[in-house]
Records
---
Amino acid sequence: MMGAYGESAVIRSTFDEASVALGRDLWKLASEGPAEALNQTVNTQPLMLASGVAIYRLWLDKGGKIPHMVAGHSLGEYSALVAAGVLQFGDAVSLVELRAKAMQEAVPAGEGAMAAILGLGPDAVVAACNDSAKGQVVEAVNFNTPEQIVIAGHAAAVQRAADAAKAMGAKRAVMLPVSAPFHCSLMKPAAERLRKRLAELSLSSPKFPVVNNADVACLTDPVLIMEALVRQAASPVRWVETMQYMAAQGVTHVYECGPGKVLAGLVKRCAEGLAGGAMADLAGMEVALAATSA
């Protein structure tokens, strides 16, 4: 997972810190797998958090600038809040492990599903969901680009909505290999478990703005930030609006901190005037450092 960064001491120390917080060896899991373990959401969420924070710390260690503002897609919001000093890293690691368990347990296995709808606008996707619910839950939950929208809910309703979206002109409707229907209203029990845990933690005001998923807003009051995190679990990820908000605030370069490049590829499709890049390896980080050094 983090092999692209070699033997970086900053990367390794961050994973060691996360391992202490969880009481298990995250570095070994990230380095050796197996794939089945990596794909379990209770492992995936802490690993992704640690990866994002580790890469941000390495960015600073190499002289990278403090960002004008940050945001995170779903789980990535926790990494963004750690970077901004709102959440302590150790607290965040144990919190996202709980988040993973709570989301997994909110809906019995096999009862929920998610699907990506490609080539259809948000209003049409929402209409397809509304027409297909038939007493069940199916909702638009990830607005990744203007024409890449993920839906989630009860499995049968998701299938009906996917079929309806194709009938309305969607290019594709792809069922996703996920373990739970994330970010739909079926996740409200998970949100309440998060609320109880967050109430036990100490949150700080952000050192720089964090655009949250639920409201597309930059909050400064730790209590309001906590409430937004609670709602995030059962609310849509409004990524298109987030990128548009950042562009409107004068942001010009958006860099993805993590082992992947998916978000970087979405940037230009979400907002004009934004350049996106991924720091999934040292080469990508060097490009980002050079582009922002002026």
---
Amino acid sequence: MPFPTEKDLLMAVCHFGHAKSKWNPKMSPYIYGVRKGIHIFDLMQTHEKLKEVCAALKELHDAGKVILFASTKQQSITSVESLGKRLNQPIVTSKWMPGLLTNWNTIKKRLQYYKDLQESFRTGEIAKYTKKEQTMLRKKLTKLDTALSGVAHMTSVPDALFVVDAVHNHVAVCEALTLKIPVYGICDSNANPDEFTNFVPANDDAVKSIELILKTIEEELLMGKGKESQQIDEQKVPTEATEEMVGF
């Protein structure tokens, strides 16, 4: 899809911030004005910052780095799951497990237990337990699946974190900052921009706004891989054919 214009951002209500009384003054450079007590973002800056964030994430993704996308907001789950699946990147869409980053060694053991339990059910090895024990283990697996399925293939802490709502998922942001992991995301008018490596100043509550921003990131990162493959293919095309294709 084409990169969204300022009009596209407007149609997706990316310009609405929070009530003036709930803002973070550090977001003032990105605020255009106030309408009916609500802060309105300067969409020219939102547009430029979205380009910057996409470029930074694309560079990480193309280099094979791990980007953890986290958002436990109900209105963002579908978009985050789609993005994680298509980009093959880890995600957190249920409750953030405290220590997921800062207590990684313990979480890693929990992940291994989760995988072993999955394997037991897959192979039928679970049959060696009593029915009562099987029921208990199935309930445990369900809980672990909810909490860890999105990060099951992580082998170490991620190279970067992307959060949809830095206030709602502030524990995740704090853990990343503690480990000096770069933080990217959507920064609404109530969030602290100083906690981000780079961010998109925009509405992090409206479904349309979240969907547009995440879909743009998804497509831009996939396009990065696509361009690389295209360049390799074009090297195999004779010069005359290549010139004809580009209109020379």
---
Amino acid sequence: MREQDISTLEGKPSPDGNGVIEIKKGIEVGHIFQLGKIYTELMKVNVLNQEGRAVDLFMGCYGIGVSRLVAAAIEQNNDDKGILWPESIAPYEVNIVAIGYTKEPKIAEAANNLSEQLQVMGYEVILDDRKDGYGTKMKDAELIGIPVNIIIGNNFLESGEVELKHRNGQSSINNITEITSIFEHFKNQ
């Protein structure tokens, strides 16, 4: 049926008599095909039946598309800024956004140390050590949607504080020495 024909079914009684037809968007993440005997006959694949006679097999195939699953997850989890990865399938759990990484050795050292500590704890970490500034790095962080960003910049130099910013918008300022304890708490939940 063409799309315009399908839309005319909306609200009509469903074929099974239970309710009315609703039109919803969907995405195909897997498929099943019944292939019949065509390939088993060509390949001369058979088995013995209960009477001991050779019979051709009926063949089918199925598959789940990993890239389709990723597309479905993104389609269901996004906002106007970009992707909001569910933690269970995020390519990284933590993004360390080091502002001034190439100019300020203390920021680079803190970012590297924190990255190593979190990795030892079992977290998948990406460290943004590019020369770009805060605006570019945060726009990219929101676009790719890593669940948690740790921002290390001027506040760290002044007071030892970093911002823990979740992709969902929640944010807190913490001393860098508290970060591993906070993540240890997350792991234990």
---
Amino acid sequence: MTLYQNELYMDDVSYVAGLSLPWEKLQGKTLMLSGATGMIGSFLVDVIMQKNAEGLNCTVYALGRSEERARTRFQADFFEKGYLKFVKYDVREPLIFTFNGSVDYILHLASNTHPVQYATEPISTITTNIIGLMNLLDFAVEHKTSRFAFASSNEIYGENRGDVELFDESYMGYIDSNTLRAGYPESKRCGEALCQAYKAEKGLDVVIPRLTRTYGPTMLMSDTKAISQFIKKSVAGEDIVLKSEGYQYYSYTYVADAVSGLLTVLLCGENGEAYNIADISSDITLRNLARILARINGKEVVFELPDAVESAGYSKATKARLDGSKIRSLGWESQYEINKGLERTVEILKSLA
């Protein structure tokens, strides 16, 4: 079975495609997307293709290093109908290809996003978030893009100083910049500043959706985030391995909610503003997250020390809960609280095994 044959997954796609958003802004437009085969990007592509089946006529330019991966992930008729076009590209290089006219929307989603990558590919982690972003911003200015969205992260907030329960968009906690692990959050911070610089100096319209720890059935099997490892163990019917005491208290987001939030910010957000995509119904400690996934399969939570590479890539933040009130003012609502999202994720992935 493929994702497209799974009723639950297609229900998720249809839910987002059916939201009351100003879809007319994408009518007959072009959308360029880095990270198109990633967890969030691939779900977004499926939503746009669903809307195209309803007459949206939005062309997606999918940027990536592997056309084979893109053609394996997406249905062949997306390409055959001309709505999905693959562009072989490494975002760390200047984007040069023949394109007539303007690119209406650009979304920079490409990024190293899990601990092993942070620890083993620290240069790529930083350059994708800064140089890759700058290359796409330059392309956006050159091609008169209507709006540019830079997918930022909850990690830009750093460690909770103990003065608030929820991080709003103006909060800044502590990050020790003189560490290997700092490459990811610091480059995301720099990326946000770069977006503001292009807004001020080049007149570019930019928005910054800040994503929480996202999970769902479109996750890559190579993902080494704690929640992804837990999910893989649950799908395999094994005990959940917890590599800490599990008291870390974080916000999480099911992929369908992450994409609905991304679209809300893209289509409804204000120029220059950042928005947390988060809802307290999915705030949970790592220990309780492990327990839910163990319960789904009647298994246990076992404790194990992380190896040196894993430890180097783990976030040091112990409490990072985001305030989602700003994006809710745009009309966004979460549909999938943590229990529902985890159960759907495991059920869908089991059908693909």
